[in-house]
Amino acid sequence: CDWSSDVCSSDLDITADGVSWNGQRYLDTKNFDVKSPINGEQGWKQLHAAIAATVSHEQGEKAFEGKLLLQADKKTPFPTLQEVLRIAKEHGYKDIRFIGAKYN
């Protein structure tokens, strides 16, 4: 599998409004505040569960390669980025690539 294919990697997106996993937002935030999300601890639990489910499914299919595409814009505070990276690494993602978003 190579990086040009979305099949072998998962997507984690950080915006001021939240954190999404593979297109589904689980953590609702205001101004990138992942320490005090709007949906509280429940949001973190849902995000962890979604990531764990993806990893478990891919491991069962013998397709887990630990590849992750992380999208964040230049306004993302470093502590927010660190927290989200820590979560990804906890779940076994080791090959993390940053992608930029194009805004009009």
What is the N-to-C order of secondary-structure elements (H for helix, E for strand)? EEEHEHE
Q: Would you identify the regions where 5 or more consecutive residues have pLDDT less than 50?
A: 1-6
Per DSSP E runs of 2 or more residues, the count of β-strands stands at 5
Cα(first) to Cα(last) distance is 31 Å
Secondary structural class: alpha/beta
Q: Helical element count?
A: 2
Q: How much strand?
A: 25-35%
| Biggest sheet overview | 5 strands, mixed
Give the neighbour order of strands across the main sheet: 3-2-1-4-5
What Rg do the Cα atoms give?
13 Å
| Mean pLDDT, all residues | 88
Percent of residues in helices comes to: 25-40%
Quick one: overall form? globular
